[in-house]
Specification:
The protein is an alpha+beta fold. Helices cover 39% and strands 8% of the residues.
Length: 729
């Protein structure tokens, strides 16, 4: 087994600080993607995937892996810590040597006592304590940030990674040495023995049949089972498992309710696990993560995103996917290909099995892949969003979009002239490029008969477009993830004329751009600018849109704006980008309930203000206070606590009015994003330096717009903006 100890960089022996793995990387947005996937993490979109995640290539020439070296001892900070040894909860490193006051000694003693006391004496496990234990399990305690103290800056890959060796035949290499322990497989199925019913009769199932029946039962109370294709695909697969001699013939006579009830009981039992059971499970997960959740890349220990192989289940898909409901079979070690250094030790699985194959591809950034039974598209185990490979990929992507900005006038001039070209293929290419540039459409590609009928610009058919008067063009098609793109726009007169000629004489199922495909278009774009592809336009236009929207903020006019109002403006700007990129989502079934709760909160707060105002009048008049009661969450009457003085009443009213304002802002924000997903563009398309610079400009904490996962992912951008606070895209 590879011991995941950190080694110094071959050229720059800088001790690496351990970066916490991104928790959100362990899953994917899609319900059927429980583990490794393409680049769909944090947001749900993977449109910005680069070539390092493509299919395995031939083994490139490589030198032998450098011999292992012991990890250098970390140097402690030069500033001294207090000499007095007192047991503390987290042993934080002190910035200055101070004499410990009796109060500090008391706090340390209290922390020590709480750790030594038995679980029975502890009333409640605090989030801080839980966090400490998670950190300890994951590989050591983390420093605690005190109130008012800035988050300690850590060395990132942008400060330590040396890529000067990437030249000549190694110019496209991602790494020189790569070691890891393989992937983690889900546990084998454990039969529960609950029987399904068929036409009211109990049916005995084999473990494989019972597992499939249990998959269906899990979704019985979801929207998925309402889709005819989902039910049809599942039942066809289930009948094959039952065999030709089975009495199960009609899906309508199948009753999986007994299994559903069993699952509900299991869920309830899981909720009621003891503290000891939860601790044991947590430690097992931490142990598994330490073994499989990291890889050594050029001697650096870096976190992997998804190291768990997908468990078997039902394929959910997105939108009206034709394969929704199909049975995803179990992936075995023989199905998995590992990517390692030539001299790295090839790991075995936990139960001693060998993997299917091993490659040594230095030009890709995945450590393992396999192909699910329902699709030829591979599933990859990639590095975490905080890793150097993913970070460099992000930075290069946005830098390339910036470079496009410097060349955009020349490129637009070129394709505008080509709109009138006499050659049909050039005219189609220029027209498609105009649409991609101005409407931020995806480039599109060929789809198989068993894939969802989603299209992009190059794969648009006659049925997806209608021409109207005054150069108006109506688009109506299913885009990525089966999200409908419906838009009527006014186009350039020459573009309209070209589209009219492309549509003429074609049937509704024929391609509009029949002489063009993504490969030809991208090959042409690379001749205009090094590394340029159609998807760079999408990143460029999304970033330009965000920059323009944020520029509308008037600092003088909004000098007294609250953090909530600034955030509302930022989110409204993000919505404009999401609309441009067609990042839609279905309205949540709980949306009405959420809005109702916010309305109720506003009404309750207004009522409380009225009570306090009346109470204030009585206090001012010297009258006795009235007893006011209200209904609590349990439906019981309880007395409302009222301020004891006029001054306290004024302060309380001010606080409650602020609460109403915040709630109204939250309600407005939630309403404008109910059908729009802003996270996808925030993660994949908008240059993060735009948002960071604006936050600093308007004095808004970056954590308000970027959660911890994104601050870790975009650490390079935060560091960049420290050095260049006036960044503009």
């Amino acid at each position: 087994m590879v011991q995941m100890t950190r080694k110094p960089h071959p050229k720059r022996p800088v001790p690496q600080k351990k970066r916490k793995a991104d928790a959100s990387e362990s899953g994917s947005e899609s319900g059927d993607d429980f583990s490794a996937s393409s680049e769909e993490d944090l947001s749900g979109s993977a449109d910005d995937e680069s070539s390092e995640y493509e299919k395995p290539k031939k083994k490139p020439p490589a030198k032998k892996a450098s011999p292992k070296k012991k990890s250098p001892t970390k140097k402690t900070p030069t500033k001294k810590t207090p000499t007095k040894k007192t047991p503390t909860k987290k042993s934080p490193v002190k910035k200055k040597a101070k004499k410990e006051s009796s109060e500090e000694e008391s706090e340390s003693k209290s922390a020590s006592d709480s750790e030594e006391s038995s679980p029975k004496k502890k009333k409640k496990e605090t989030p801080t304590k839980r966090k400490k234990e998670e950190d300890d399990d994951a590989g050591g305690p983390k420093k605690k940030r005190k109130k008012g103290e800035k988050e300690e800056e850590q060395e990132g890959w942008w400060e330590t990674v040396d890529d000067s060796w990437k030249k000549g035949s190694k110019a496209n290499w991602k790494w020189r040495t790569l070691e890891h322990n393989g992937v983690c497989f889900p546990p084998p199925y454990e039969p529960h023995g609950v029987k399904m019913l068929y036409d009211g009769k109990k049916i005995t199932l084999t473990p494989d049949q019972e597992e499939a029946a249990t998959f269906w039962a899990r979704y019985m109370e979801t929207e998925h089972v309402k889709k005819p294709q989902f039910s049809k695909n599942f039942f066809e697969g289930f009948k094959k498992l039952m065999g030709k001699g089975s009495e199960i013939k009609e899906f309508s006579k199948c009753d999986f309710t007994p299994i559903l009830e069993h699952l509900k009981k299991e869920k309830e039992a899981r909720k009621n696990r003891t503290k000891e059971e939860k601790e044991k499970e947590k430690k097992e997960k931490a142990k598994m993560k330490e073994k499989y959740g990291y890889a050594l890349i050029d001697g650096r220990k870096e976190a992997l995103g998804n190291y768990m192989v997908e468990p078997p289940g039902l394929f959910l898909g997105r939108g009206d996917h034709p394969k929704a409901g199909l049975l995803k079979t179990r992936t075995h070690p023989k199905d998995v290909t590992l990517n390692l250094s030539e001299n790295a030790k090839v790991p075995l699985t936990a139960d001693g099995q060998k993997y299917g194959s091993v490659v040594h591809n230095h030009e890709v950034a995945w450590v393992a892949f396999w192909r699910p039974n329902i699709s030829d598209s591979p599933k990859y185990v990639l590095f975490a969003a905080t890793s150097s490979l993913r970070g460099q990929s992000d930075q290069n992507k946005f830098d390339k979009a910036q470079l496009l900005g410097k060349n955009i006038d020349k490129i637009r001039k070129t394709y505008t002239a080509e709109l009138k070209d006499s050659e049909e293929s050039i005219k189609q290419r220029a027209t498609a490029l105009w649409i991609i540039d101005h409407l931020a459409l995806r480039v599109g590609g060929d789809k198989g008969d068993d894939e969802a009928d989603t299209v992009g610009c190059c794969s648009l058919r006659v049925e997806h477009m209608k021409l109207h008067d005054d150069n108006m063009v109506e688009f109506d098609f299913l885009g990525k993830d089966s999200m409908r793109y419906q838009n009527t726009v006014k186009v350039d007169a020459q573009v309209y004329k070209n589209l009219k000629s492309f549509l003429k004489g074609k049937k509704k199922d024929e391609d509009i751009f029949d002489t063009l495909n993504p490969s030809r278009l991208n090959a042409h774009l690379k001749s205009l600018m090094k590394g340029l592809t159609a998807k760079v336009f999408r990143t460029y236009n999304a970033s330009v849109c965000m920059q323009k929207q944020l520029d509308k903020w008037d600092i003088k006019k909004n000098k007294n704006a609250t953090a909530e109002e600034k955030l509302l403006f930022f989110n409204a700007s993000s919505v404009e980008v999401a609309i441009l990129c067609n990042h839609k989502r279905t309205v949540s079934t709980s949306f009405s309930d959420q809005m109702g709760k916010l309305d109720q909160l506003i009404e309750d707060t207004k009522q409380e203000i009225k009570w306090i105002q009346e109470h204030r009048k009585r206090l001012k008049a010297g009258k006795a206070a009235k007893t006011i009661t209200k209904e609590n969450k349990d439906g019981e009457k309880e007395e409302v606590k009222l301020p004891s003085s006029v001054e306290s009443c004024d302060k309380r009213i001010e606080v409650l009015e602020g609460k109403i304002k915040k709630t109204e802002v939250k309600k407005s924000d939630k309403d404008q994003q109910k059908e729009i997903s802003t996270s996808t563009s925030k993660v994949n398309y908008i240059d993060p330096r735009i948002s960071i610079t604006w936050c600093k400009k308007v004095d808004l904490d970056v954590s308000k717009v970027f959660p911890k996962t994104l601050r870790d992912k975009f650490g390079w951008a935060l560091a960049f903006c420290q050095k260049k606070p006036d960044f503009r895209f």
